[in-house]
Amino acid sequence: xxxxxxxxxxxxxxxxxxxxxxxxxxxxxxxxxxxxxxxxxxxxxxxxxxxxxxxxxxxxxxxxxxxxxxxxxxxxxxxxxxxxxxxxxxxxxxxxxxxxxxxxxxxxxxxxxxxxxxxxxxxxxxxxxxxxxxxxxxxxxxxxxxxxxxxxxxxxxxxxxxxxxxxxxxxxxxxxxxxxxxxxxxxxxxxxxxxxxxxxxxxxxxxxxxxxxxxxxxxxxxxxxxxxxxxxxxxxxxxxxxxxxxxxxxxxxxxxxxxxxxxxxxxxxxxxxxxxxxxxxxxxxxxxxxxxxxxxxxxxxxxxxxxxxxxxxxxxxxxxxxxxxxxxxxxxxxxxxxxxxxxxxxxxxxxxxxxxxxxxxxxxxxxxxxxxxxxxxxxxxxxxxxxxxxxxxxxxxxxxxxxxxxxxxxxxxxxxxxxxxxxxxxxxxxxxxxxxxxxxxxxxxxxxxxxxxxxxxxxxxxxxxxxxxxxxxxxxxxxxxxx
Length: 483
Known about the structure:
This protein has 483 residues and is mainly alpha-helical. The chain has helices spanning 3-20, 22-31, 36-56, 67-91, 98-109, 125-140, 142-149, 157-164, 177-201, 206-217, 235-248, 252-259, 264-268, 270-292, 299-314, 329-341, 354-372, 389-415, 420-431, 452-466, 470-473, 478-481; strands at residues 381-382, 385-386. The model has no long low-confidence stretch (mean pLDDT 89).
């Protein structure tokens, strides 16, 4: 492990995070609020820390960045971003402890949307903008952003790209990883701009259009309103945000292809079709359940609420327009299952990803067919391509590790005093980067009451979920740190 090289790259990333705080600082200066000093202090701390880390790595060549250094840089960059990002919350008095600030920042950067704020609207707009901006920065990825604006990282950037981009097999749009990062961020910005305009057209002001767009396109879920999207009570906003959450949960490579004049590339993709079918099935069955058992008298209202909550949970956004914790048991359990599914590979969504669920199901089917036809050569295909054995093994290992970590974290949260529903759903919601769970961490509740050790454990779950477990777990193996 080349520690000085890791330090140098982390120094640059600290500077990027600190520089991004000038955006919310604008709203603080505009409003003349009392969080100006908090942002200035946080920016200063970030730049000083970044400069120290960068100077510690003087003389190192970015081209020599290997897989070990990539794992360390990616994991530690998200931890450092959250550590610096927590400062505005803590220094401005929006949270009581630094632990709460770190939880809120990690929830933001990992696009989880789990919050400890009890009265969101009482905070200055600068703090609320920063809270939502952490979503947008973390959605496409801090490393991918760095690769887009720091082309001199060069060849070593591919290792960083592989370590951060979600999915079993990260896709490059071009041979050069820096150009791929620019294109992905270009699509991300374009869709974000389209949503801002759509929300503004419906009457939402610029501040709320931006913050809700950040939460939607990053599938994060932070809202500047106490009642989330449901506080508006406008069907137009519900449907607009549902559509953009759906788009954010799809592979951004497919969006790029569609924008290049190949819209059918979306439907030709097997994962996108599976993703769409899961949403349609869940929406239809929950709508029927709400009409029959949930006390809904309006079919349009039932469909709208069902579609919004299903897409919000599947894409791991976490916005809410209804308290689904009060829905029939079928609806609650189905939503809990959807927390494990997540969005598509290459999207901003969390969870296991639809492509992994597909591979696991096909692996089960393959084993059943093999029992019936022992001599038959059976291969798993995806989009017409035979999957390599190492990819199938990796997906299977990820699935097993995900379930094991979920069980262990749930056991730990239960040992801290949470009831079974809260323990299960809090871990499912943070490991899947969703945000709201059920019971005491439901859509109308928050995580403020969780004890400090519980908040640190759930913060680790958010990090594991966002970086898809292996990138983080690798750092706990002694071999990773050897030269």
